[in-house]
Amino acid sequence: MSFAGLSLAQLWPLFAAGGGAITVLYLLRMRRRQVVVPFAALWERVTRESESRRLWRRLRRLLSWLLQMLVLALVCLALGDPRPEVWLRDPISLAIVIDTSASMAGPAADEPDTTRLDLARRRAEQEILALGPADRAVVLEASEELGVVAPLSSDPASVVPRLQRLTPRFGEADLPRALALASHAVGERPGPRILVLTDGALDPGAVDALRACTEGPIPCEVARVGGPAENVAITAFAARRYPYARDQIEVLTEVRNLGDTPVKVVLEIEADDAAVGKRTLHLPPGESKREVLAQLDAARSRFVARLRHEDGSDAPFGLPHDDEAHAVVPPLSPLDVVLVTDGTNLFLEAALLVLDDHVRLTGISPQEAREGRRPELAEADVVFFDVGSDVLPSTLPDAHVVMFDPWRHQDQAAPCPIAKKADVERPFLTEQDRDHPVLDHVVLKDVNLARGTTFDVIPGDEILVRTLGDPIAVLREGEHALVAFGFDPRQSDLPMRTAFPMVVDNLVRYFEQREAGFVASVPLGAHRELALADLGLAPEGVTRVTVRGPGPATDGASGDGSAGSEFPVERGRFRLRALVPGFYTITAVDGPLAGSSVELAVNQASVHASDLHDALQALELPEAAVADAPPEPTPLPQGPLWTLVMLVVASLVALEWASYHRRVTV
Amino acid sequence: MGWADRLLARNEGTGGPAEAELFDEAFLARLELLQVIARRLFRGRQRAERKTRKVGSGLEFADHREYSPGDDIRYLDWTVWIRLHHALIRLFEEDEDLPIRIVIDVSDSMRTKDGAKLRYAMQVGAALAYVGLANLDRVGITCASGKHHGTLPAVRGKGRIFRVFEFLRSAPRGGPTDIRAMCTRVAAESRQPGLTVVLSDFYDLEGAFEGLNMLRFRKHEPVAVQVLDPLEADPTASGLRGDVRLVDVEGGSARDVTLSPRALKAYAEAHQRFCEHLEQSCRSRGIYLARAPIDVPFDDMVLRLFRQGGILR
Q1: Measured between alpha carbons, how far is A344 from A495 in angstroms, rounded to an integer?
Q2: A369 lies in a domain?
Q3: B267 to chain A: which residues are within 8 Å by CB?
Q4: What CATH number has the domain bearing residue A342?
Q5: Is the ipTM value over 0.85, yes or no?
Q6: Which candidate in A474, A594, B19, B220 could, as Cys together with B196 as Cys, close a disulfide (CB 3.0–4.6 Å)?
Q7: Residue B228: what pLDDT?
C-alpha cells in the first residue's frame, strides 16, 4: 500500500494534532443543563441503578473517544490517498491459455474429487482477481480446437463466470495455435505475459510450441496442474463382417495400460445390451492387449466395450471417456452389377448369378449400352462388358468396368483406356500375380486361348496376368477401377475351369471393398468431414441430414449440433464434431431415401489423449518460465480508495450520531 | 443565577399578580356550590348545624337511658315513671359545630412551575374553608413548611372568608417539605381535634405518612389531598432528554444523570409506586387520601373526590 497524496511523514503530525485536540475536548468536563425537580429523592432512587453501571459509562466514554480517533485516522488515511501496489505498477496484458484437452479431466494430485481442469480454473481465477485497474487479460481454451473463453478485459466480474463454464474437451490440446493467438493478442500491448495452465500431458508438437514460447520475446510461464498418470484405455474397438461369411462378425478390442504400474482390468463387451464377452486382462505398464471376439451373430448391430475393476467397481481408470468404446456393425448393401452381353456367354452370367446375396444383377444388350437407353448402366457400381464379336459403346460408364477382349475390332475406336500392344495367337498365360486379391485362390495355369491382345501399360497399372512377359490382364486404378482381359472367354476354355467363377467373384469383392470403406467409428472432439456413402447412406439427392447423438454436446459445422440438429450436406459430405462418446444416428432429411438412417459410433480411442504422463518433465523449462505461486487477489479492483474511506467515515459519523441519541455513546 | 434560582427568586415571598387572581369573582361564585360535612361529629363549643351523637341540650329526642344519681332531673321522663315506675332520663341530640383545620403545604416543592400546585392547593383549601364557614363551622388555616409556619386561628361565619383569602395571599412560602413537623405543630396548636385536611404533594419520603398518622393519634380526622402535577408524576411526555444536572428545588446536592426514555419511564413507575405506597399506608389507618391532579378544576375535584371520601354531602 502506498500513499499518493500526503506522505506518511505529513500524516503523522496531522493525526497527532487532531488526536490531541479530540482528547483534550474529551478531557474537558461537559457542562450539563440544570433541571430543577421537586422530588430529587425519588430521582436519586431511580438513578441509583445506573450508578452501578458507572464502569460501563466510563467505557462508553472511552468508546466514543476511540470512535472519534478512528474517524480522524480514516480522514488522515483518505488525505494520504492510499493505493495498493498493484495500482501503481505498470499495467500488464495477460493471456491465460488453459489446456482443456481430454487429460485435463483426469484426477488432480492430493485433491480427491477434483479434476486437473478444476485446478487450472482456480488458478486462472486467482490470476484474474489479482489484476489491477489498468491490467487486461484474455483467456484462451486449447483443446483440439481453439476457443476464446473471455476476450481482453479488465473486469473480473465478466471473466470469472466464463471460467466456470469451461469443461474438458477430447483429444489433444492444440497449443501451437493457442500460443500463437495468445502472442498475437497481447504481443503489442503493454506488459505482455502469457500463462499456460496445463497438466503437461501434451503431444510432441505442443511441447515444442511451449518450449518455443518460453524462449520467445513475450514472457511465457507454465503453471502445471498435474496429477497421477495412471490410466487404462480402450484404444481400439471395431466390428467387421467376415469377408466370406457376411452373416457373422468379429469384434476387435485393444486395451492399453498407460500408467506406470501393472493393472488387472475386466473387459466387458455387450451387443445390443446383451453381454457377449468378458475377459480379465493383466496389463504391465505401457503395454496393450488385443482381444478378438470371433464369429458373433451379425444380427447384432451395436457393440459396447467397457473396462471395469475386478471387484465390479465403476470407478474410472484415470480418464472416464476412454473406459468405454462403441462400434457399429457395417450394414449389408448389395452392389449394382450390369452385365453387357450378347447372351452367348452363359458362364459369366451364371458366375454372377451365384453372387445373388450381395449383387443385384442387370443384363442389357450391347446395342442398348451403345444407345444409352438403360438407366441402370449409369447407376451401376460394376459393369461387365462381354460383348463377344459385337461392338463396345463409344464411352465407358461411370463405374468400375471389366472388359473382355477390348481390342477385338481393329477399326473400332475402342473406349478402352489401356492401349493395345500386340495381337497374340494362342497365347499362354505364363505369369499371374498370385498375391492380388483379384486372383486370390485362382490358378490360370494351362488355360487355352485361341487368340488375344497384350496391353501397353503405363506406370501405376497393375499387371494381373502376363503371357510370356507381356501384360494380358491389367488393372488400372483411377476414380473407378478398370480391369481389362486381352482375350474373349468364348475363345478359351477358361469358363470351363473353376478359376473362372472365382475370378468373377474376386472381381466383384474387390470392387466392393474398393468402394469407400465403412466408417465404423470416429474420434471425439475434432471436426470430421464424413461422406454419407462411407456411413452406408446413399448420398444421391441428400442435402440435409439430422444427427441425433447420445447427449446434447454434438457440434456441427453449421450450428451447435445438439441432438437432433440438422447439418447441410454438400457433395454427399457433411461436417460433424462429436463431443460425447456413444452412438449417433444420421438420418437423411430429403432425397429419394429421405428418412433412411444409419448409425455411427464415436469413441475417444486416442493413445495420446489418454496418456496422462507429464511430458513437460523431460522438458527443462527455464526458471523464469515456471509460474510462481498464485498471486494474492487485489484488495480493490477499482479506485480511488479514499472515497471508500470517506464513505466509512460518513458511516461511522452516522453511527455515532444515531447511537448518541440512544445514549449508546456519550 | 440558574433557572431554579430565578424561579425561586420570582416566587419568594408573598403576594403578586398570581395570588391576586387566586380568589376572584368567578372563584367565589363556584364556592357557593360546595358543602362540607364531617364524617364524624365532634364536640363543639357552640351550636352549629351538625348533630352529634352525644346527648345534649338539643331539641330533638334521641333515646332514653337509666337514671343515675346526679342527672338533671329536668330530663327525667315522668310519663314513663308514672306508668312503669322506672326512672329514665330522656336524651336529645345536640347540634354542634365542626372544627376544621386546613393545612396547606407551602414548601418549595409545591412552588415549581410558577407555583401551580400551591395555587391549586390554596384554591381547594379556600373552597373547603368557605363551605365550612358557610355551615357555621369553625375553620382554621395553616400554611406551613419546614421553614415557615403561619396559622389563621379558627374563625366562624361566612363573612370571615375574606380574612381567609387575605391570610392565604399573605402567607409565607418556601422552605423544605416536612410533613411530620407540620402536622405535629398543627396537632399541638389544635385544642379541639377535628377534621384536618392536609393539602400537599407529600414529596417527603420519610415523614409524609408519619405526619398524617400523628394527626390521627391526636384524635384528628386527617384527610390527605395529594396535589399532583401530571408532568411531574410522569415526565416521559415532558420532552426532557439527555445529560442533565438534576437540582432539587428544596436544595441538596445536584446529581448528574442521563435522562433516557428508559430512565424517565423508571421515574414514572417509581412515582406511581410512591403514591400507591402512601395511599396504602393511609388506607390501612383509615385515613382518606385523595389525589388531586392540577389539570382538574378545583371545584370538580372537591365535589368528586371529597364526595367519594364521604366528606361532602
Answers
A1: 12
A2: yes
A3: 42-43, 46
A4: 3.40.50.880
A5: no
A6: B220
A7: 92
